[in-house]
Design a protein that fits this description.
Rossmann fold, TIM Barrel, globular, alpha/beta, seven-stranded mixed beta sheet, 2 domains
Length: 368
């Protein structure tokens, strides 16, 4: 029985982590006979469901990733199995059970429907040790180096702590170094790059320096740290942390998550930092010759026009100083406290001002 990963550009990071676990699996661009494995986020869900509904293949369909893990019932209307949360241990065991004809209900970390059509969710697995699993299979698909997983904060809009837990886990320097040879430009994934080696609340910059200095000593590689597809939290931006970036890294930009210019909104969404933390981090970036690229969201439940104007004021200040902003409209994601909320409307003023700034090249994103 063929085992196939449904590949597309939007799920390549997930497939990079899963491909080494299933040697010989095919990478396909549509339904195929055998075991079909999908990983997708909410924005891709409808197109994936439509593809599976229309499939004319003899397939066992397995789904994993952010949307299936958060919307199990919705996904099982189209798929045979959902891998809930992390797949490193679950997926190979599920595939082996399917191929050998074993009872899949004994596989931890999955959801499926029984013969009566009732949803069954098996026992949850413990978080995986990242060092036991490779970052990617270079012969199949590659991705930025995942250095950390999980997040101790519980921002109401975010799936990360719900998928990967509230305790940060880190890949060791030795494990990371085994994959450096495949790249000229080194980029990383983490919920907060500057939290590497720490509990995610209190930084341990000696651990960050050990990682960056080891990467730097390896030579011949550009190090991009705290930039997309990663970011950093504002309160982790200090003189000491920025000195590490300017000393060891290639990047002159830093991605920061601000989310709002209203302290009330930041408290409401459980963000865990203040507007002053954002302002301080941006000032420090400029002091060190680093351009901040700052993320904002709009459309939070009960967000007022006045609070949108607060964000707008902070956005204008950032751009006037020479920073960049990425703004986007809140998407209620399954499995989060905001899964079923009613989002607020974007004011005409916010829309007009950001539209003008976008035309000037100062703001990117989608805030409709």
């Amino acid at each position: 029985m063929d085992v196939c990963f449904r590949w597309n550009k939007k799920n390549m990071y997930s497939l990079a982590a899963l491909a080494p676990l299933v040697p010989g699996a095919l990478k396909v661009k549509g339904p195929h006979d055998g075991i079909m494995i999908y990983s997708f986020a909410t924005r891709q869900a409808e197109s994936v469901f439509r593809e599976v509904r229309k499939a004319n293949t003899d397939s066992v369909f397995i789904a994993g990733g952010p949307h299936p893990s958060g919307a199990i019932e919705d996904t099982l209307d189209h798929f045979d199995y959902v891998v809930v949360g992390e797949g490193e241990e679950t997926l190979p065991e599920l595939i082996e059970a399917i191929i050998s004809g074993k009872d899949t209900s004994h596989v931890k970390g999955i959801a499926h429907k029984d013969s009566d059509g009732k949803t069954v969710i098996t026992d949850k697995r413990d978080p995986v040790d990242l060092d036991k699993y490779p970052c990617f299979d270079p012969d199949v698909v590659m991705a930025p180096l995942e250095i950390s997983r999980g997040c101790p904060f519980r921002c109401k809009y975010c799936q990360t702590p719900r998928l990967f837990g509230n305790k940060m886990r880190h890949r060791s320097v030795d494990s990371i170094m085994r994959f450096v040879k495949y790249y000229k430009d080194l980029r990383f994934t983490s919920s907060n790059a500057l939290a590497y080696g720490s509990d995610g609340i209190y930084p341990q910059l000696d651990k960050v320096e050990k990682l960056l200095s080891t990467l730097h000593e390896y030579g011949g590689r550009n190090i991009f740290f705290g930039t997309f597809p990663s970011e950093v939290r504002p309160e982790f931006v200090t003189n000491e942390s920025l000195e590490l970036i300017t000393k060891y890294c290639t990047n002159t930009k830093l991605s920061l998550g601000a989310q709002s210019g209203s302290d009330r909104i930041l408290r409401s969404i459980l963000r865990g930092h203040t507007v002053d933390d954002v302002v301080n981090s941006i000032e420090l970036c400029f002091d060190h010759g680093i351009t901040p690229v700052v993320d904002f969201m709009v459309g939070f439940p009960d967000e007022t026009e006045e609070e949108q104007d607060m964000s707008l004021g902070l956005i204008k200040w950032i751009c006037k100083k020479g920073g960049h902003v990425h703004s986007h409209y809140l998407t209620p994601l399954p499995g989060t406290p905001y899964a079923n909320v009613t989002t607020s409307s974007v004011s005409d003023h916010y829309r007009k001002v950001l539209g003008k700034m976008a035309l000037e090249g100062k703001v990117t994103g989608s805030w409709e």
